[in-house]
Specification:
Layout (H helix, E strand, L loop, with lengths): L2 H14 L4 H13 L17 E2 L5 E5 L7 H4 L7 H12 L20 E5 L12 H17 L5 E5 L1 H14 L16 E4 L8 E6 L4 H4 L6 H15 L7
Parallel strand pairs: 2-3, 2-4, 4-6
Antiparallel strand pairs: 1-3, 5-6
Amino acid sequence: MAARDSWRSLEQEIVDCRRCPRLRRHCLEVARVRRRMYRDQEYWGLPLPGFGDHAAPIVMVGLAPAAHGANRTGRMFTGDRSGDWLYGALHRAGLANRPESTWVNDGLKLDGVFISAAARCAPPLNKPTRAEIDNCAGFLDREFDLMKQVRVVVALGKIAWDAVLRRSAAVSPSTMPKPKPKFGHCSRTALPIRKGSGPVAILGSYHPSRQNTQTGRLTRPMFDQMIQKAIHLGGIKEKAI
């Protein structure tokens, strides 16, 4: 199967997934009731595939779609404040052609980076269960399998960090240090994320959620610095897109 067909097949399987009844009920109910400011919009309400450059050297892994963000718009990190932070930073770094993302068909393009998540449905209170994350693990695995040029993985938050380490332990158990590397902003390790391949850089970053950005736990300079580090480790040359 050609790579393009493999991606399409995976994306459709993610959209069609019904493995987590609690999450499906929640997403559909949010899409039915809607937030007042979005009352005239039709919500996506389905699981979310990853988004971005399939040949990217950088993969960024988040937690899960936001109920009135990606669950509404149909694309990862789109239509909420976290997405404003993420795509604004990627635009400043030359990896996105727009500084904001409002809707799935708004013309946003990424170059050199792919965006994924540990969970593909918006969870109540932004807290998926362990079992729900496990149900999604195979989707992240298959995205990594299809991405042949990954050199850096940026984990946005501890749940994403744990999901990336789980993937690495599955493909190369003998290379996982004991104890496992701890998450923190600017945490860094190097581990395999594809079978038969060498280690890639794994970076930890606080998630660009309002809880972190409005309290100053994560600032724009901190986030920009993390992305610049990923660009350097990914071997990406300065470019305009």
